[in-house]
Design a protein that fits this description.
Jelly Rolls, Immunoglobulin-like, 2 domains, five-stranded antiparallel β-sheet, 2 helices, 7% helix, eight-stranded antiparallel β-sheet, mainly beta
Length: 324
């Protein structure tokens, strides 16, 4: 084998290994109802369906300015109608303070259901799907669901195929629902597709339902006390402090001037990783000075923490508007 071929194979091997470290797709499920603060939990985006008697596949309410969570797609091979089950006071309830169509809500019941009383078994193969963006950042998706008198399956799939799909079956009852917590990251810019679909009926009227979805960055072993950016005249002074850092390798800083919710608009401004100074039982203070600025501009900064395995988690953004 020629040296150039060996170099090429080694490069491909390390590229594959790097991608494998970046990607993940895991999930857990919990049965039961809960009272959910969508604003607190869905820091990147959130959406809720079926408030009142709404049957729209567009969220009844979502995070103001949010766009990461897609509208629902109704999987309807049996030609069944939809029913908004927020009109009934059961299941999880939802609160928020940053909604679009309804700015605030307190303990609001919700849910969109594939519904028929024509006979048992007509909910089988019925369901809902939606998408959220994916890249090398580790994100957390929480999906609130119900399988009324049936068994439903949740399938989460990364479009770039960099991690095996997450598949789990959930056996429902009369009014008991539950929620899935999915942590994911892809090897490239792609998307995660989630399908919630009934696979079996318990022999009575069966209806798959979805209530709400929240999206955030996945919590990490970094206990971040503060993260701030301020106008220091000739530069932006960026500071952060941790209380503890478990298996943290270091940090990078990212900046954008446009839509702070679009991760593709951020540019890395640290040429080299800032080494971690904290440990499992102690934290550290950090500072970075950004001189590549324009007077009067508004900047958004994100903090990237990289663990010892090469996986990243992001914090922020924080905003600063400079004097003219």
């Amino acid at each position: 084998m020629k040296p150039v071929q060996i170099i090429f194979l080694l490069a491909m091997f390390f590229l594959f290994a790097e991608n494998a470290l970046c990607s993940q797709l895991t999930g857990t499920v919990a049965a039961g109802t809960s009272s959910v603060n969508l604003t607190t939990q869905g820091t990147l985006d959130w959406a809720v369906w079926g408030t009142g008697s709404s049957t729209s596949l567009i969220p009844a309410v979502r995070q103001s300015g949010g766009s990461f969570i897609s509208n629902l797609t109704y999987v309807n091979p049996n030609g069944q109608p939809l029913r908004g089950i927020g009109q009934f006071s059961f299941g999880s309830s939802f609160s928020w303070t940053n909604g679009n169509t309804t700015p605030t809500g307190t303990n609001v019941f919700a849910g969109l259901q594939s519904w028929t009383e024509a006979g048992p078994g007509l909910g089988v193969n019925q369901g809902f799907s939606f998408t959220v963006p994916a890249d090398t950042s580790i994100r957390r998706l929480v999906v609130y669901i119900h399988a009324h008198h049936g068994t439903c399956q949740l399938t989460a799939t990364l479009s770039d195929g960099s991690a095996s799909p997450y598949v789990h079956s959930f056996v429902g009852g009369e009014i008991t629902g539950g929620y899935y917590t999915i942590d994911y990251a892809a090897a490239s810019v792609s998307q995660l597709t989630v399908l919630w679909q009934e696979t079996a009926s318990s022999g009575t009227y069966d209806h798959p339902a979805i209530y709400a979805v929240t999206l955030s960055y996945s919590p990490t072993a970094i206990d971040l006390l503060s993260f701030a950016a301020s106008d220091a005249g000739d530069f932006v002074d960026i500071t952060w402090e941790t209380a503890a850092e478990i298996e943290n390798a270091g940090f990078h800083l990212w900046r954008c001037q446009d839509n702070p919710q679009d991760p593709d608009l951020y540019t890395k401004i640290t040429g080299f990783m800032i080494p971690a100074q904290g440990g499992a039982t102690w934290g550290a203070k950090y500072r970075y000075e950004d001189f590549s600025i324009q007077p009067g501009a508004t900047y958004f900064y994100k903090l990237e923490a990289i663990d010892d395995g090469g996986k990243s988690s992001f914090y922020g953004p924080v905003q600063v508007t400079l004097k003219p």
